[in-house]
Amino acid sequence: MGDSTERLAALGTVIPEISLPRSDVDLQKWAVIACDQFTQDTAYWEDVAKTVGPSPSTFNLILPERYLEDAHRQNRGDGIHRAMTAYLAEGVLAPPIRGCVYVERSTPRHPRRRGLVLAIDLEHYDWRPGSQTLIRSTEGTVPERIFPRMAIRQSAPLETPHVLLLIDDEADYLIPALGERAKKAPPLYHTPLMFGAGELSGWALVEETDWLVLAEGLAELARRSETRYGELGGTAREKPFLYAMGDGNHSLATAKAVWDEYKQTHANDPGLPQHPARYALVELENIYDPGIAFEPIHRLLFGARLEDVRAALSDMPGFVSRSVTGAGELSQLVAGKAGGNRYGLIGEGRYILIETETTGIATEGLQPLLDELTQNGAGIDYIHGEEEVFRIAEAGGSNTPVGILLPPVKKSGLFRTVARSGPLPRKSFSMGEAVEKRFYLECRRLFG
Is residue 393 scored above 90 in pLDDT? Predict the structure, then answer.
């Protein structure tokens, strides 16, 4: 093994073999948004299907979570595996390249977000609270949400990533430095993204010298983490904490579950340590990249009345509530500066501002109260983008859910908080609005 390979392996990182669509594939139809977006918007995914039509597309390789509870989910999963097999047999994918892909993404809100597509070793990842692995979850993981996703990854010939991992590079040096090296050559791809979601470009990093720069940069970040997050910021050594989950928490947990299951059933296979299922393709981003904004993930409560929700939240310290005139005022007040966290309730034609004395992550005091409601029969969904919350909660009708608007999220201190206290409550933050989420493009061989 080359020096970079060994050094990266010690950091839970692997240089993958990445497959891209052949040159005649329409990338604007090939690339679709992460499957965990627009979970209450059937029309969005129907528009995707119409836009894609018969063209090759990652839409045929994923299961949008809008359909995760669909009665025909198994049929959809079988169709995904058939599409993967067909794309490989028909040469839809070009021969793979061994390397990383430096990517630049523009969105309607940011002109550039930089990342690096590579593979991580799932042996260095554990989503469970208290984990001290190199790769850690930043939010609570619900085991029940893993199992339905496993059927898609089990025996899948391909994977295509929407997982975003974060590094804590305050100087914002490593990924831009790799970008400068990559952009000395022409891009591997450049494409606009459907429905005005921006543009996406990628450049190859295939030289040993590039991988050494990556290894040295990651090693320095890992070393720094050993003394960076202690209570007093002192010199006591801690377990290295290199990668934090950004997006795709349950998808990476699913990859881990599939690998653990495969290990158990193939324990005597001599090729097990190098099996592709041990690894997961991800995009690495720096938490301090100017193109990354942390956004709250809002809530929808189904089967609950507005007053029931308000009563449930009244247990929060310093609880005060009052009605406001409309969506604009509620949005402005929730986002405004205050001594404690503010929340907005939308439902039954009413808008209610809730003020509390709780500080810190807004979900910490909120989520346990919502869990009590769900235990008593209410349903819950998690929504990216406040416009989407208002659209759904203002729809009217007997089945319209109550919307809960959350305040803005600060991204500084995320690594320190997770290192000290473990994962935040589930769905505590999102990296950008829904339209800014990762689009599938790169693929990697998985099973078969």
Answer: yes
Residue 212: which of 181, 248, 170, 233 has the closest Cα?
Answer: 181
d(CA 445, CA 448): 8
Nearest alpha carbon to residue 405 among 317, 359, 339, 336? 336
Write out pLDDT tens, residues 242-270: 999 999 999 999 999 999 999 999 999 99
Q: Which of 104, 128, 102 is nearest to 116 (CA)?
A: 102
Q: Cα(409)–Cα(275) distance, rounded to whole angstroms?
A: 39
Sequence-distant (6+) residues with CB within 8 A of 155 are 81, 447, 448
Smallest CA-to-CA distance from 105 within 200, 202, 204, 190 is with 200
User: Locate tokens 């990859």: which residue?
Assistant: 255
Edge-first strand listing for the sheet containing 402-405: 320-323, 350-355, 342-347, 402-405, 297-302, 379-384
Rounded distance, CA 66 to CA 145, Å?
Answer: 13
Q: Report the pLDDT value the prediction gives residue 115, as an integer from 0 to 100.
A: 98
Instruction: Looking at 183-305, list the stretches that DSSP marks H as alpha helix, in order from N- to C-terminal side.
Output: 208-228, 249-265
Residue 207's identity, in one-letter code, is E
CA distance 252 to 76: 21
Beta bridge partners of 425: none
